[in-house]
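User: I'm new to structure prediction. If I give you an amino acid sequence, what do you actually give back? Let's try with this one:
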Amino acid sequence: MTGYEAFIDYVKKWKPTIDAAIMGSFEPWRKDGLLELHEWAKSYFLAGGKRLRPALVLLGAKEAGGHEEDVVKLAAAVEILHNFTLIHDDIMDKSDYRRGKPTLYKVAGIDLAINVGDALFSKAFSLAADYGGAVAKKFADTTTIIVEGQDMDVRWSHKHGWLPSEDEYVEMVRRKTSVLLGSSLELGFMAVTGKENPALNRYGEALGVAFQIIDDILGIFGDPKKMGKDADKDIQEGKRSLPILWAIKKHSEGKKMLQVLDKDTKTPEDIEWVKRVVRESGAVEYCMKRAREWVDKASYPFKDKEVEKYLEGFKMFIIEREF
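Assistant: Good question. You get back a string of structure tokens that encode the predicted 3D arrangement of the chain. For your 323 residues, that looks like this:
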């Protein structure tokens, strides 16, 4: 079995256990008569999700010499936190679909969707706190960094005529996306040992940058049926993603492309024109190259060779994924 297959099997193996822990954490709402809150939260998770981040928590614990079963609730906390960010992101981005279904705010309305997201936020912290002060502090610090990255991403889309450098882009990605992958590994390790592991965290963060770069490509050229979310959303929002940055800087029509991206409303013709410019600029090839370089940066002296094999498979998944 290849590392890729082993990683996919590992995620699938633990998904039912993680999901059971997530659903179990919602039970107090049902028992207290908060039936709608319980159902909205439950249905959101039943809609799907890869459960990659909780798998990293389990692998962090395994690398530390612990038992995966002992950190299942912490893994659930990480996944719940991740989904809190998705619910709020969809509202901010005005996204219509998530996991192949209408986004929560489209179904429940903005007010209830925000509150469900807030409920998940508090639930995640409650679960993480059971693992002690150091884990809770790391969990809180991670959340703060995620919010900072989201702030950068949203503000950049509204700064017309302006582009970040690639280093600035990487810093935004590190905060918005990478930090949770790195922290997932380290939190699992900390829950077992009580000790921080910055090197393991850096390993996960490097993979997180690669993960987001591939996500940027899919955000322009991905198949919405495979991805389960809106097509062309990054273009509609004027996102300063890496393929967009490269195309604007390298293509002869880059200046015009920036003007199109900054339009409040893009026509279907605008979107197709932007896609053409991105393709012609060589942005996809450049971004794939950078993603592979970030994957190669992920290095750690694993003691558990099975964990190392799984994470080598995760590297392959990042580069090859279509959703």
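You can read the tokens as a compact description of the fold. Here is one thing that stands out. The longest strand covers residues 97-98.
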